[in-house]
Design goal:
The chain has 265 residues and is of the alpha/beta class. The chain has 3 domains: 33 residues; 122 residues, D-Maltodextrin-Binding Protein, domain 2, CATH 3.40.190; 88 residues, 3-Layer(aba) Sandwich (D-Maltodextrin-Binding Protein, domain 2). It contains 9 helices and 13 strands. Helix 2 crosses helix 8 and helix 2 packs antiparallel against helix 9. About 4% of the residues have low confidence.
Length: 265
């Protein structure tokens, strides 16, 4: 009788332990599902960068925070190597790439992409006083790009890019430092980062629009291929925030004007 009682108590204890394990596992899973992990380059102003207090700030940061609040989610910003962004996404270490990520057909084939939410152009940026006045004048010159950027991809694939020296940098800020030092002749980047740096840092730069090179139609949010559920949630939240006027407020904060572009506008 005593042995049976001990056995019953043991079984009850085992069931209780298993129940607790399942409960905490579910809690952990629910907690993970409520956190949106965003991969970004934290040296890409004004989309995402570190301020004087080493806090990650920027246009896309404010945008993502507003979307997370709308969805009742927490958001975590995870700095990543831009050259390895696709691997980070495929491995599940991040839920999406949200950092001035340009749309291209190649990226659309390998990832699930949101609608374009902001448009920009491809610029060549040069120091004021440069004798280079047109894209054609850049032939035979050196042009800085960020490794893994759409600008690098477009230059390498274009006929124009075959006649220039393409210098890769881990981030655009380092490229601009080399431009200031005269180590390269130009930096190729989007008009969003170019205009922001010229205005915010009072840089004495000139810009030349690219011709017949860019394949991007604007910035999108990238998800692992097939993850349409998360893409739809975030995209729907963006449209709701647009209707509420909140996206325009964020755009004016960072650009001084409304740069938001959503499908159908």
């Amino acid at each position: 009788m005593k042995k049976n009682l001990i056995k019953i108590i043991g079984i009850i204890a085992l069931v209780a332990i298993i129940g607790l394990i399942i409960y905490f596992a579910n809690q952990k899973q629910e907690s993970k599902e409520n956190i949106l992990v965003i991969g970004l380059d934290d040296s890409f102003p004004p989309m995402g960068f570190r301020d004087d207090n080493n806090e990650i700030v920027g246009f896309d940061i404010d945008l993502a925070k507003a979307v997370a609040e709308e969805l009742g989610m927490e958001v975590k910003f995870q700095p990543i190597s831009w050259a390895e962004k696709e691997q980070e996404l495929d491995s599940g270490k991040i839920d999406c790439i949200w950092n001035g990520f340009a749309y291209t057909e190649d990226r659309n084939a390998n990832m699930t992409l949101s609608d374009v939410y902001i448009k920009s152009e491809m610029y060549f940026i040069l120091k004021n006083g440069s004798k280079i006045k047109s894209q054609n004048d850049l032939k035979g010159k050196t042009i800085g790009v960020q490794t893994g950027s759409v600008q690098q991809e477009d230059l390498e694939k274009s006929d124009f890019g075959k006649g220039v020296g393409i210098v890769q940098y881990s981030d655009f800020l380092t490229a601009f430092m080399d431009l200031d030092m005269g180590r390269i002749d130009a930096v190729c980047c989007s008009s969003t980062i170019g205009n922001y740096l010229i205005k915010s840092q009072k840089k004495d730069y000139i810009t030349i629009k690219s011709e017949g090179i860019s394949t991007s139609s604007g910035s999108v949010i990238a998800f692992k291929k097939g993850n349409t559920e998360l893409k739809d949630k975030i995209q729907d939240a963006l449209y709701k925030l647009k209707d509420q006027g909140k996206l325009d407020v964020i755009s004016n904060k960072w650009f001084g004007k409304n740069m938001i572009y959503l499908k159908g506008e």
